[in-house]
From TrEMBL:
UniProt protein name: Clustered mitochondria protein homolog
GO CC entries: cytoplasm
InterPro entries membership: CLU-central (IPR033646), CLU_dom (IPR025697), CLU_N (IPR028275), CLU_prot (IPR027523), GSKIP_dom_sf (IPR023231), TPR-like_helical_dom_sf (IPR011990), TPR_rpt (IPR019734)
Chief localization: cytoplasm
Subcellular location as annotated: Cytoplasm; Cytoplasmic granule
Region listing for Disordered, in residue ranges: 1-28
Length: 1250
C-alpha cells in the first residue's frame, strides 16, 4: 500500500481535524468532545423570568445560549414580546450580553432572572417601534410575497391541522376524500391559484387604523432637554386620534394636534415603558385584538416564524393592498437608503468583519463551532446588505465614483461595499470574448472564491463576493481591500498579472500560501515567462492577483481561472485534429463558444482523478503479481539461499512499475499518484519557456483526457435516471443532477444527442422533455437580459409582460395596451409642446419585438450556445411535439429571471387576447448567487453516518445524524438545507426502526424547512410531502395523509406535468390510501394511471409493474370484481415468474393469491347461480368481500416507496450491530438476507425496491 503512494482523490483537504488531534491533544479529549458539546447544546434547564409589574414565568434555556440570544427569546415570548429596551439581572448584577449562560456563576435550575427596564435612546426607540410594527403584522404574509426580512411562505400546517389521528373508526365515513377536479388523472387543467391557498389564520387582526411618524419630528432643542426622542400619530379602531411622545423614559400622550404643537402630557398623564402598554390602556379594541394576535402568533410553528438566513423569493403573489407603515417609510428614507436596520446611520466594515471571523481560532471543536457560526452569520448579513446595495445601484439611488463615464462603466461604493457591472469595462476582457466573458467571469470568480474558502488556508484571504442579476444587469458586489482604492491596482499587485501575462510578478509569501492550496485544488505549480523572458514561478492561474492590504493581510483576487479550462469549448485555429481525442471529435468538439472562460467543474475533476486512480491501482496490482510470479520462478531455479542482489532487483522492479503507472495515468510525480492541472494552458498572452514545451504538451493532453472523460463517461452516466436514483423534475433539479456528475449546463445539446441515441429513450422521455424546456428557457433568459437593458423604468411591467406574451402566448396580437403612467405623461408633454412629435410607446425598441422574431433568436441562441438545433417553426410546435406545459415554462422563466407574476388563472390558449397584461407582472426580484458557508465538523459526522447506515448500523447512524443536526443548527440556525437533510434522514431512520411518532415530527420539520428555504413548489419539497404522507398514514392520520398526497400531486403537475415517474409513485400511494379509506372507484383511477406510467418508465417486465398489477387486483377483489382481479394478478404472476423464478417468495405469494381469488370467484358464482335457481336460500352463506386492513395497506405503501422495515427487538439490534462491526463493509443485500434468517420476515424481493 505504501509502495503505491496513495494521494486520495478528493478536492477538499483531508480532514485537518485528525492531524490536529495528534498535535494538540495527546489524550484525544477531542474524541469525547463532540458528544459533550452536543449534550451541552441539548441539555437545557429552567429559569424563572421576572418582568416588571407582572408575575414571573418559567422558561427553558440551553447552556450554550448567549445572554443576547435570551434577550431575543424574551422579545418573542408571548408575555414579554412588547418589550425591547431592557437588561437582565441575576442577584442584582447585570448580565453581559455576550456571555454564555452556562459560564455565569449562580445561574442554575430555577434561578430568578429579573427583567429591568432601561432608558431609551433614539435608536432604541426606533427599534422598539419597528418591533411593535412587526408584531402587529406578524400574521400578514405580505413580507413573504415581497421577499423581505427573511420571510417566506409555508403551507404545511394548512393541510395538517385537521386530523390528529384520534378519530374513532365510526367517524371515518364522514371524511370527504374526493379531490378537486384538476388533481384527477387525465385532467389537462393546470390552475395556478391553488399554489398559494387562502389561509384563514393569515387574515390579519387589525389593532390600529394608522400608526405613523408625526410631522412634528424631530423634537426641537428645548424638548430634547426634556428627553423627547420622537413623536408618533395613532388612529385607533375607535377612531380616536392620538399624538404620542417617545421619550427616554417611555411613551405618553401629548396635547399636540395636526396643526398645533403642544408637547405637554395629556391629562391624566399615563407614562408606559412600552408603546403596546400605552395603547392597551387607551384603546380597548387594541388590547383585545393584540392579545388575540399574540396568541395566534405563538401558536405558529417556530419554523414558520423564524427569519431565513438567505432571502427566498416567490414567483407568484396575489395582488395585495398597500398599507400605511411608518417604519417602512422611515427605513426607505433617502438619507439612509437601505442601510442595516440595527446600525442606523452607521456603516459596517464588512471586510474587517469577514476576515476577522476567518482568523478566529480553530483548534478545538468549540472554537471551530464559534468560528463557523460567526462566519455564517456575518456572511448572511453581508449577502442581505450587498443585495440591497445592488438593487439600489440599479435603481439609480447610489452616486457613482466615476459619474462622467458611460453608465455601464460606472462603479459604486455604498455601505463599505464595492459594486461594478458585469460588462467589459475598458476592453479588459476583449481577448476572452468581451461582454460575454465579463458576464461569465463574475460567476467563475465566485466559484474560485468558494473553492479557496472551502480549502480554508490560514493566512490566505479572499474577498466577500456576491453576484446579483437584476433587471437584465449583472452586479458584482465585493468587500474592499484596505488601501486598494488609494493606489492604482498596478501598484498594489505583487503576485500574478494584470495584463494577461505581459507583466508577471511573484512573491514568496503568496507562493508559500498558495502552494498549500495546490494539492486540494489540483493545481500544477508552473513557470511562465514575463516581459523580459525570465521564468516566473506561479501556483495559480496567471490572472489571479495577490495584493497586500494595508491591514497586513494577503488577499487574492480575480480567481476566474481556479479550475482547469474545458478544451471542448476552447476553439482555436491552431489546434491540430490529431491532438483532439476521438470521443471529443465524435461529439463535434471543440466548438466555438461565446467566451473562452469555459472551465471544468470540481465534481468532474474529482470523478476523473478517481477514475485515473483506479486505473493506476489496477496497473500496479497487475505488475506486482507478474513480478511475484517471476521472482517465484527465479527462486525455484536458484538455491534456497537467496543472494542479496535479487531483493534489490524486485525493489527496483517495483519502483519501475510505479514510474510506468504514474506516467500512464498522467501523474505529476513519478513516485506516487498525484494528478494536477495547469490552469494557464489556454490563457491568452501566457508564454511558457521552450525547455518546458514537452511538459506543457503533456499537461494539454491531460486536459483533453478530462474533456473526453466528460463525454465518454459522465454524460452516459446520467442513465442514473433510468433506475430512478436521480429524478429531476424541473430545470433546477436537472441542473443539480448534471452538476453532481460534473457536467456543465452548456453540454445540454450533447446530452440531448446522447438521449436520442440510447435504446431506452422512451423511459428517459421525461429527462428529454426537461432538457428541451431548459434549452428554450435559458436561451430566452439570455435574450431577455439584453432586451431589458433598453427599457425605461416607467415601462418595466409593460415590457416584461410583452416579452412573456411573445414567448408563451398563442395569440398573434402584440402590444395593444400601454400604461396610464406613460400615456398621461406623454399627453401632458404633447400639450405643452403644442403638437411637437412625441415618441409613442410602440416606438420603443422593446415594443417592436414580435413572437416570431423572439422565437428566431431563441433558435439561434440554442444553436450557438447549446449546439442544439430546434427544428420547429414556433413555440406551439415544440410544446405539441414534446408535450411541454406553458405553465411550467412560465415558472421556469420567472424563477430564472426574478419575475413575480400575479396569482391568477392564465388562459394560454386564447388566440385573440394576449395572456399577460401589465398588472400581471407584480414585481422583479434580484437573482443572487453567493458562497454557501457551512459546518465542517457536522458535514464529516453526516458522511460517517451515511457510511454507518450503508453498513446496516442504523442506531449508530441515527446517533451520528442527531449530533450533526445539533452542530448544523448551532452554526446555521434551523432554516438551512443541511439541517433539512439531517431531519429527512432522521425521519427515514425513525420510520424504519418503527418509531412512527418521531418520524412524523422530524419529517414535519423537514417539510417546513424545505418550503421556507427552497420554495413551496421545489421538487425536494414535493418529495418531502410524499414521505410525510407515508409517515402520517403509519401514524393513523389517514385523511391528512391523503391531503398531503393531493398537495404533492398538484405541485408535481404544476412543475412537470402528469407524464413523469414521480406521478407513478404518487398515484400508487394515492390508490392505496384511498383503498384504505374505502374509496374504491377513485382508488382504481389513480392505480390505473400508475400502472400505465410504471409500464412506460420502468418497463413492462419490471417488478414495479408487477406490483402495480397486484395493487389493482387487491382493489378489484375488495369490490368483488374477481374477473378483473384475476386478470391483473395473472399479469403480476407471469412477470414475477419470468424475472425472479418460481421459487421466489414474491412468485409464491402471487400464486397463493391467485388460488384464493379463484376460490372466491367460484363461491360468488355459486351464490349468483343459487339466487337465479330460486332454491331455498338457507344452505349457502353469502360471499365475504375482504375489506382492506391498514397494516396490509401500509406494507404495500412501504414497498411502493422502496422501504424495507426491520421489526427487531433491542437485543437483536444490539447483537446484529456487534456482529456487523466485525466486517468492514456489508452489502445491503447481505444485511437483508441476515435479517430474513433472524426473524423469518416475509419481505418482498429487493428488486421491488428498484
Amino acid at each position: 500500500e505504501k509502495e503505491i503512494g496513495y494521494s486520495p482523490p478528493t478536492l477538499t483537504e483531508e480532514t485537518p481535524k485528525d492531524n490536529r488531534l495528534e498535535q494538540s491533544d495527546p489524550d484525544k479529549r477531542e474524541q469525547l468532545s463532540i458528544r459533550d458539546i452536543v449534550e451541552l447544546q441539548e441539555t437545557g434547564f429552567i429559569v424563572r423570568i421576572q418582568p416588571p409589574g407582572t408575575e414571573s414565568f418559567e422558561l427553558q434555556v440551553s447552556g450554550q445560549m448567549l445572554v443576547a440570544e435570551l434577550h431575543q427569546v424574551l422579545m418573542d415570548h408571548e408575555i414579554t414580546c412588547h418589550r425591547t429596551c431592557f437588561s437582565l439581572q441575576l442577584g442584582g448584577a447585570t448580565l453581559d450580553s455576550l456571555t454564555e449562560l452556562h459560564s455565569i456563576q449562580g445561574l442554575h435550575e430555577g434561578a430568578l432572572i429579573k427583567l429591568v427596564e432601561d432608558s431609551y435612546s433614539v435608536r432604541d426607540a426606533r427599534l422598539h417601534l419597528r418591533h411593535v410594527c412587526d408584531l402587529l403584522r406578524s400574521l400578514d404574509p405580505a413580507d413573504s410575497y415581497n421577499g423581505v426580512n427573511g420571510s417566506s411562505l409555508s403551507y404545511l400546517t394548512f393541510y395538517t391541522r385537521g386530523d390528529k389521528g384520534n378519530r374513532r373508526a365510526s367517524e371515518k365515513e364522514y371524511v370527504d376524500c374526493s379531490p378537486p377536479e384538476y388533481i384527477l388523472p387525465g385532467c389537462k387543467d393546470r390552475p395556478l391559484t391553488p399554489l398559494q391557498p387562502i389561509r384563514d389564520d393569515w387574515k390579519p387582526l387589525q389593532c390600529l387604523r394608522v400608526l405613523t411618524m408625526s410631522s412634528w419630528n424631530p423634537p426641537p432643542g428645548n424638548r430634547k432637554m426634556h428627553g423627547d426622542l420622537m413623536y408618533l400619530n395613532v388612529l385607533t379602531m375607535e377612531d380616536r386620534e392620538l399624538n404620542i411622545t417617545s421619550s427616554t423614559r417611555g411613551f405618553y400622550l401629548n396635547q399636540s394636534t395636526a396643526f398645533n404643537f403642544n408637547p405637554k402630557p395629556a391629562v391624566p398623564k399615563i407614562l408606559c415603558h412600552s408603546l403596546v402598554e400605552l395603547l392597551s390602556q387607551v384603546s380597548p379594541a387594541f388590547r383585545k385584538n393584540f392579545s388575540a394576535l399574540q396568541k395566534k402568533r405563538v401558536q405558529q410553528h417556530p419554523y414558520e416564524r423564524f427569519a431565513a438566513p438567505f432571502q427566498v423569493f416567490t414567483w407568484t403573489a396575489p395582488h395585495g393592498d398597500h398599507t400605511l407603515d411608518c417604519v417602512r417609510v422611515e427605513e426607505t428614507h433617502t438619507s439612509r437608503m437601505g442601510q442595516d436596520k440595527h446600525t442606523a446611520g452607521q456603516s459596517r466594515d464588512w471586510n474587517e468583519e469577514l476576515q476577522g471571523c476567518r482568523e478566529l481560532p480553530r483548534n478545538s471543536l468549540q472554537d471551530r463551532l464559534h468560528r463557523e457560526r460567526s462566519i455564517f452569520k456575518t456572511s448572511s448579513d453581508f449577502v442581505a446588505a450587498a443585495t440591497r446595495g445592488a438593487v439600489a445601484v440599479i435603481d439609480g439611488n447610489v452616486m457613482p465614483l466615476n459619474p462622467g463615464e458611460a453608465p455601464h462603466m460606472q462603479m459604486f461604493i455604498w455601505n463599505n461595499l464595492f459594486f461594478s457591472f458585469g460588462f467589459d469595462i475598458s476592453e479588459h476582457y476583449r481577448p476572452l470574448g468581451g461582454n460575454a466573458a465579463a458576464h461569465a467571469a463574475a460567476i467563475c470568480d465566485l466559484r474560485g472564491v468558494q473553492a479557496y474558502a472551502s480549502v480554508d488556508t490560514e493566512g490566505l484571504h479572499t474577498l466577500g463576493t456576491i453576484v446579483v442579476d437584476y433587471r437584465g444587469i449583472r452586479v458584482i458586489a465585493q468587500t474592499i481591500v484596505p488601501g486598494l482604492l488609494e493606489k492604482s491596482q498596478e501598484q498594489s499587485v505583487i503576485y500574478g498579472s494584470n495584463d494577461y501575462g505581459s507583466t508577471v510578478f511573484t512573491h514568496p509569501r503568496f507562493l508559500e500560501l498558495l502552494d498549500k492550496t495546490c494539492k486540494p485544488l489540483r493545481i500544477q505549480r508552473h513557470q511562465v515567462l514575463d516581459q523580459n523572458n525570465i521564468p516566473v514561478e506561479l501556483c495559480s492561474g496567471v490572472e489571479t492577483k495577490g495584493i497586500l492590504g494595508n491591514d497586513g493581510r494577503s488577499y487574492i483576487l480575480d480567481l476566474l481561472r481556479t479550475f482547469p479550462p474545458d478544451l471542448n469549448f476552447q476553439f482555436s485555429e491552431t489546434e491540430e485534429a490529431k491532438d483532439v481525442p476521438e470521443e471529443c471529435q465524435s461529439f463535434g468538439y471543440p466548438q466555438q463558444h461565446h467566451h473562452s472562460l469555459a472551465s471544468l467543474r470540481p465534481e468532474l475533476i474529482e470523478a476523473f482523478v478517481q477514475h485515473r486512480y483506479e486505473l493506476y491501482v489496477k496497473m500496479v496490482a497487475q505488475g506486482l503479481s507478474q513480478l511475484e510470479e517471476q521472482s517465484e520462478a527465479t527462486e525455484q531455479n536458484e538455491d534456497l539461499v537467496c543472494e542479496p542482489g535479487t531483493r534489490d532487483t524486485t525493489t527496483a522492479g517495483r519502483r519501475d512499475l510505479i514510474v510506468k503507472a504514474c506516467k500512464a495515468v498522467g501523474s505529476v510525480s513519478d513516485s506516487c499518484f498525484d494528478i494536477r492541472f495547469n490552469p494557464d494552458i489556454c490563457s491568452p498572452g501566457v508564454r511558457f519557456s521552450p525547455e518546458f514545451a514537452e511538459e506543457v504538451q503533456k499537461q494539454r493532453k491531460l486536459l483533453w483526457d478530462a474533456a473526453a472523460f466528460l463525454l465518454s463517461n459522465q454524460i452516459p452516466a446520467l442513465r442514473d435516471c433510468l433506475d430512478h436514483t436521480a429524478l429531476p423534475m424541473d430545470g433546477v433539479t436537472l441542473t443539480s443532477v448534471l452538476h453532481q456528475h460534473g457536467v456543465n449546463v452548456r453540454y445540454l445539446g450533447a446530452l440531448l444527442r446522447e438521449l436520442h441515441r440510447v435504446e431506452e429513450r422512451e423511459r428517459l422521455s421525461h429527462i428529454k422533455r426537461i432538457c428541451i424546456s431548459e434549452v428554450i428557457i435559458r436561451s430566452a433568459k439570455h435574450i431577455f437580459r439584453t432586451y431589458l437593458q433598453d427599457v425605461e423604468p416607467a415601462a418595466f411591467s409593460a415590457a416584461v409582460s410583452h416579452f412573456l406574451n411573445c414567448l408563451l402566448s398563442s395569440s398573434t396580437c402584440v402590444l395593444d395596451s400601454c400604461s396610464d403612467e406613460l400615456l398621461s405623461r406623454r399627453r401632458s408633454r404633447r400639450r405643452r409642446s403644442h403638437g411637437s412629435r412625441v415618441p409613442l410607446l410602440t416606438d420603443s425598441m422593446w415594443a417592436r419585438l414580435t413572437p416570431s422574431e423572439l422565437w428566431g433568436r431563441i433558435r439561434t441562441e440554442a444553436g450557438d450556445y447549446y449546439h442544439y438545433t430546434i427544428d420547429s417553426e414556433n413555440i406551439d410546435e415544440v410544446i405539441e411535439k414534446h408535450d411541454l406545459q406553458r405553465i411550467s415554462l412560465l415558472r421556469e422563466i420567472a424563477i430564472k429571471t426574478g419575475i413575480q407574476v400575479q396569482l391568477r388563472e392564465y388562459v394560454f390558449e386564447s388566440r385573440h387576447r394576449p395572456v399577460f397584461g401589465e398588472e400581471d407582472v407584480v414585481n422583479m426580484f434580484p437573482v443572487v448567487k453567493h458562497l454557501k458557508p457551512t459546518a465542517t465538523d457536522a458535514t464529516q459526522l453526516l458522511q460517517q453516518a451515511q457510511v454507518a447506515v450503508q453498513q446496516g448500523l442504523l442506531k449508530d447512524g441515527y446517533e451520528l445524524i442527531s449530533q450533526a443536526l445539533t452542530l448544523f443548527s448551532s452554526v446555521c440556525g434551523v432554516l438551512h438545507e443541511d439541517v433539512c437533510v439531517c431531519l429527512r434522514l432522521l425521519g427515514r431512520l425513525s420510520y424504519i426502526l418503527g418509531e412512527y411518532a418521531d418520524a412524523l415530527s422530524h419529517q414535519e420539520k423537514a417539510v417546513m424547512s424545505s418550503e421556507r428555504v427552497l420554495g413551496i413548489d421545489h421538487p425536494q419539497t414535493i418529495q418531502d410531502y410524499t414521505y410525510l404522507a407515508l409517515y402520517c398514514f403509519a401514524g393513523g392520520q389517514h385523511s391528512t395523509s391523503l391531503q398531503l398526497l393531493y398537495r404533492a400531486r398538484y405541485l408535481t403537475l404544476l412543475v412537470s406535468g402528469e407524464d413523469h415517474p414521480q406521478v407513478a409513485l404518487l398515484d400508487s400511494m394515492l390508490g392505496l390510501v384511498l383503498h384504505a379509506l374505502m374509496e374504491y372507484e377513485l382508488s382504481l383511477k389513480f392505480l390505473q394511471n400508475a400502472l400505465n406510467l410504471t409500464s412506460k418508465y420502468r418497463g413492462a417486465t419490471s417488478l414495479r409493474h408487477a406490483h402495480s398489477h397486484h395493487l389493482l387486483a387487491t382493489v378489484y377483489e375488495t369490490k368483488g370484481e374477481f374477473r378483473s382481479a384475476l386478470q391483473h394478478e395473472k399479469e403480476a404472476y407471469s412477470i414475477y415468474k419470468s424475472q425472479v423464478g418460481e421459487n421466489h417468495d414474491s412468485t409464491r405469494e402471487s400464486s397463493e393469491y391467485l388460488k384464493s381469488l379463484t376460490q372466491q370467484a367460484v363461491v360468488l358464482q355459486k351464490a349468483i347461480n343459487h339466487i337465479y335457481s330460486n332454491t331455498p336460500s338457507a344452505c349457502i352463506p353469502p360471499p365475504k368481500f375482504s375489506t382492506p386492513s391498514p397494516p396490509a395497506i401500509l406494507q404495500q405503501l412501504n414497498l411502493t416507496c422502496g422501504i424495507i422495515l426491520i421489526p427487531l427487538s433491542a437485543k437483536e439490534v444490539a447483537d446484529l450491530r456487534t456482529e456487523m462491526k466485525g466486517k468492514d463493509k456489508v452489502q445491503v443485500e447481505e444485511l437483508e438476507n441476515h435479517l430474513l434468517k433472524q426473524k423469518d420476515l416475509r419481505t418482498a424481493h429487493k428488486g421491488q425496491q428498484n
